[in-house]
Amino acid sequence: MTAEIISGTAISKQIRDELKQEVIQLKEKHNIIPGLATVLVGEDPASQSYVGSKARTCNELGIYSERHDLPADTDEQTLLALIDRLNKDTKINGILVQLPLPGHINENNVLIAIDPRKDVDGFHPINVGKLMIGEPDYLPCTPHGIQELLIRSGIETEGADVVVVGRSNIVGKPVANILMQKRDGANATVTVCHTRTRDLISHTRRADILIVAAGGKPKAITADMIKKGAVVIDVGVHRIGKTKEGKNILCGDVDFESIKEKAKAITPVPGGVGPMTIVMLMTNTVKSARLAAGLL
């Protein structure tokens, strides 16, 4: 048995096409153009690449975008003043501050300063709390993308034994909360494992759906750690070398080549979860515009 490949590239394109039509209708029927502002402090190449890809996606979908690039030595008060201005700007429906920030800036202070109605990353404590009680305005982008991959691939989550490896605030905790909610595309029984879990393999081997967001060693989850017919979602990204042409060679947290012969379905790296994160950010931005206009 060779696993079905769950293509985030293909599924994210479906969602992009849907969003593009939604943005056109918002403009034609309501004269609304959703707007996203990105804020980058410093010159980290990976962060610059991420911010650039978000701007290109906005342009592709017809979403208004602003990019605010600040020097690495920008003080916290200057950054907070920019966020305050963006909070009040009616052209802007979503604010994304690219993390990580330089060490002299308190990330919590910055995230809390963003208006929860414009927190399209879903990281503000108010939005985290709404997710916990099952009444979210915005779902965090990567966990939401994982749920969409499962739904659009026809993978049943109701009653499924889901094991999440990793407990970060960005992926592990929110994806567990999303999948345990009493609603369509969820209703799973969820176990969260982490660095202090005893006998990890006993948990991963019973998972119907295994979501790995450990962020540790490349290919840490091997074929002997899953049961036959499991669905495996790999969130990790590791650079393990370069091609002769100088391109990065990437892999995930799971050993794709061995697991694909045992799993029912699996996400590749690259081309799995990664493409979903940006498109779900755009989904949240469009939803914010609808909320601001009283259309939801």
What's the topology here?
Layout: E1 4-5, H1 8-30, E2 35-41, H2 45-61, E3 64-70, H3 76-88, E4 94-97, H4 107-113, H5 125-132, H6 141-152, E5 161-165, H7 172-180, E6 189-193, H8 200-204, E7 209-212, E8 231-234, E9 238-242, E10 248-251, H9 256-259, E11 265-266, H10 274-292
Low-confidence stretches: none
Rounded to the nearest angstrom, the distance between the terminal CA atoms is 45 Å
- Measured as a percent range, the helix fraction is 25-40%
- In what range is the share of β-strand residues? 15-25%
CATH fold-level topology of the largest domain: Rossmann fold
Envelope shape: globular
Radius of gyration over C-alpha positions, nearest whole angstrom: 19 Å
CATH architecture of the largest domain: 3-Layer(aba) Sandwich
Oligomeric category? single chain
CATH class of the largest domain: Alpha Beta
Quick one: biggest sheet?
6 strands, parallel
Query: Within the largest sheet, what's the order of strands?
Result: 1-11-8-7-5-6
Question: Which structural category fits the helices and strands?
Answer: alpha/beta
The CATH homologous superfamily of the largest domain is termed NAD(P)-binding Rossmann-like Domain
Alpha plus pi helix count: 10
Total E-strand runs: 11
Number of domains: 2
Mean of residue pLDDT values: 96
What are the secondary-structure elements, in order, as H or E?
Answer: EHEHEHEHHHEHEHEEEEHEH
